[in-house]
Amino acid sequence: MVDVANVPGAAAPASAADSSSKRVALKRVLGPAHVWGLGVGIVLVGEFMGWNFAVGKGGAIAALTACWLAGILYTCVAMIDSEVTSTVAAAGGQYAQAKHIIGPLAAFNVGLYLVMAYTMLEVSNAIVTGDLIQAFAANMGLAGEVDKRAYMTLTIVFLAWLNYRGVLATLTLNYIITAIAFAAILALFVAVNPLTPGATVMHDQLLTGLPYGGLGILAAMHFGLWFYLGIEGTTQAAEEVRSPARSLPLGTLTGIMTLLIAATLTWYIGTGLMPWEYLGQAITPLYDAARLTGSLPLELFLFVGTLFATLASANGCINDASRAWFAMGRDRYMPVWFGAVHPRYHTPYRSILFFVPIAILFAVSTPLDQTITLSILSGLLGYTIMAIGVMMFRRKWPLGSIARGYVHPLHPLPAILLLGLCAVTYLAVFLGYGTQLLAMMAFYIFASAWFVLHRYKYCRRGDQFTMPWPKPKGY
Amino acid sequence: MKRAPYEPPTQSVFGQVVDAFLMLALVLVILYLPLLLGLAGGGTTVKTFDAPTWEALGQNATMAAQWEKLGFDPAKASEIIGKRFDYEFSWVALAVTALVIVGYFVGMLRWSEKEYRDVIAERFGDDAKADPRGPTA
Question: Which residues contact B50 (CB under 8 A, 6 or more apart)?
Fold first, then answer.
C-alpha cells in the first residue's frame, strides 16, 4: 500500500496545506510492458476465432479494410480511456467512471454491458473449445463420436469452479498460456512461407474482390471489432501502474499496434489458404489453416494454441464478469446477495455461480456468430457511452481542476470520431443481424426501466461518489 | 449545506431472489428466445444447386483443392457457398432501429442526470461552495 495524496485522480491542490491529505491505494508496480501484455493477452483469442466472420459478411478484402477501420476506432477508445481511467483510478473500471461522471442509470447500464460482453465472450470460447475438440478427434481418426456439447459444458463448469476456488484466476498463468498461443500464431506464419507467395499461401487464386460490393466493407465492420474487443481492459490496471501518464497510453497504443500487425498476419494466413466462403463461417480458422499446411506437428501446435487461447480468455471472462456483477451487488444496483465474498476462498462466489446456467444454455444451443454479436453489441454500447462520457468529464472538471494522469490530445476530435465509427458499426450490425440488434436494445431498455422504477430505491445516493474531487462544474 | 442522506429500505431475501430471477428471465426471454426460435440473424438467402460441380459453384482449381483438403465435396460445400447475406433492407426498419438506439441513449442520459443531481446534492450540498479537496471517502 502506498500514499497517493498527489497521484492522478486527486483534486488539484489549491495550497500546500491541501496536499497534506492522505489516502491509501494499491501498490503501483506495473510499467508499459505490463499494460501491453495485459491488453494483448485479453484480445489474442480474437485472432483464433470470430474475426473471420467479417470475411463472411463482406469478403476477404472487406475484412481487411474493416480490421484497419476498427483499429482507428480502438485507437480513439485507448486515447479516451487512458485519460479517464488514469484519473478515475478506482476499481470497477468503466462502471466506476460512469458512476462518477454520468450518473447511476448510466453506471447500471455500463455494468450490464461489461457483464454481458464478458459472459457472451465466455460462451463463445466454450463453443469454440467444444467444436475444436470434436474436429480434432475426427481429424485424428479417434474411434467413437465426440459430443461437443459435453466439452462446452465441461469448460464452463471447470473454469467456474477454478474461479470459485480462486485458483488460476491470476494474470501470471494467463500470461504463460497466452504466450504459448501467440507462439502458435508465429509458428504458423513462418510455416506458410510468407516470403514466397504461391508456395503455400495462394492469394492470387483465392482472393475474389468484393462479393457484396462496397456495402460489404460496411457490413464487415461488425465483426471487425472482434480483432480488438477487450483491449480497453488494459486501463483496468490504472490503480497499479507506476506512471499512468506514460504507461497507460504507451502500453495500450503499442498493444493496438501489435494487434493490428497480428490481425493483418492472421488475415494473410487465412485468406491465402482458404476460399472466402469457407473462411467466412469457420469456427476454428487458424486450426483449419494448420491442417491445410499438411504438417501434423503444426496441426497439434495450433490445436493446443487455440485451446489455450480460448481457455485463458474464458477464465478471464468469468473473473471479470463476476467481479462486475459483484460490484453492482455491493452498490445495491443488483440484490446485495451478490455482493457476498466466500468466507474461505475470498471470491465473489454467488456472482460466479449465477452465470453458469446461463452460459451453458447459450453455449450448447446457439450459433457462435450470434453469441459473438451479443458480446460485440455490448462492447459497442460501452464505447458509445465512453465518447459521450469524456465530453461530460471535460465539461464537469475542466483541465486544471483535478490532477489528470494523462490528457489525451485533440479533444473532442477522438470522441467525435469514435461516435461516428460507433454509428457505422451499428449500421453494420443492422445489415444481417438487425433483429438481434433490436433484441439487445430491448434488453437494455427493459433493464433500465426496472432499475428506475424499482431497483434504484435500494441504492444510497451520496455513497456513489467516492473520488476526492471538487464539486462538478454546473451543479 | 449537504442534503440529509437518503436511507434506502432494506430488501427482503424473497425480494432479492425475485429480482435475481427477473434479470435471468429478461436474458432468457429477450436474448435467448429469439435465437432459439431462429428469429435473430436471419438476414440470409440460400441458393440451392442441383448436382453441383466445383465449376458450377464458381470455384477454381485451387479453391476446389482446398475444399477437398478440408473434407468437402461439391455437394457438401454447396450448402456453405449457396448461403449469402441479404443486405436488402427496409428504410422504415432502419429508421425505427436508429430511433430506438438514439431514444435509449437520450432517455438514459436524461434520467442519469436527474439521479446524478441527487447524488451530488447529498455528497456536496445543493449550493454550498465545494471543498477543493472534495469529500472524504
Answer: none
Q: If 0-12 CB within 10 Å is exposed, 13-18 middle and 19+ buried, where does residue A416 land?
A: middle
> Whole-angstrom Cα distance, residue A68 to residue A42?
19
> Would A106 be classed as within a structural domain?
yes
- Residue B42 sits at the chain A interface (C-beta within 8 Å): yes
C-alpha cell at A93: 473500471
Residue A14 lies inside a defined structural domain of this protein: no
Q: Is B4 on the interface with A (CB under 8 A)?
A: no
For B81-112, the pLDDT digits (tens) are 999 999 999 999 999 999 999 999 999 999 99
Residue A271 to residue A204: CA distance in whole angstroms: 10
Residues 58-117 of B with CB under 8 A from A: 59-63, 66-67, 69-70, 72, 77, 80-81, 83-87, 89, 93-94, 97-98, 100-101, 104-105, 107-109, 111-117
Containing domain of residue B104, as a range? 89-137
ipTM of the complex: 0.89
For chain B, the farthest-separated pair of C-alpha atoms sits apart, in whole angstroms, at 83
Instruction: Please state the domain count of chain A.
Output: 1
State whether A102 and B117 contact (CB < 8 Å): no
Domain of A58, in residue numbers: 29-456
Tens of pLDDT, residue by residue over A160-219, are 998 898 764 556 677 787 788 889 999 999 999 988 888 899 999 999 989 999 999 999
Residue A6 lies in a domain: no
Of B115, B130, B137, the CB nearest to A103: B115
Does B119 contact A281 at a Cβ distance shorter than 8 Å? Answer: no
What are the DSSP calls for A285-320, one per residue?
Answer: HHHHHHHHHT-HHHHHHHHHHHHHHHHHHHHHHHHH
**Residue B135 domain flag:** yes
Is the pLDDT at A38 greater than 90? The verdict is: no
Shared domain for B74 and B50, answered yes or no, is yes
**Angstrom distance (rounded) from CA A329 to CA A331:** 5
- Write out the H or E segment, with its range, that includes residue A25: strand A24-25
What is the domain count for chain B? 3
Together in a domain, B50 and B36? no
CATH number at residue A353: 1.20.1740.10
Residues B93 and B118 in one domain: yes
- ∠ CA(B29), CA(B37), CA(A123), 5° rounding? 65
- Residue A2 within a domain: no
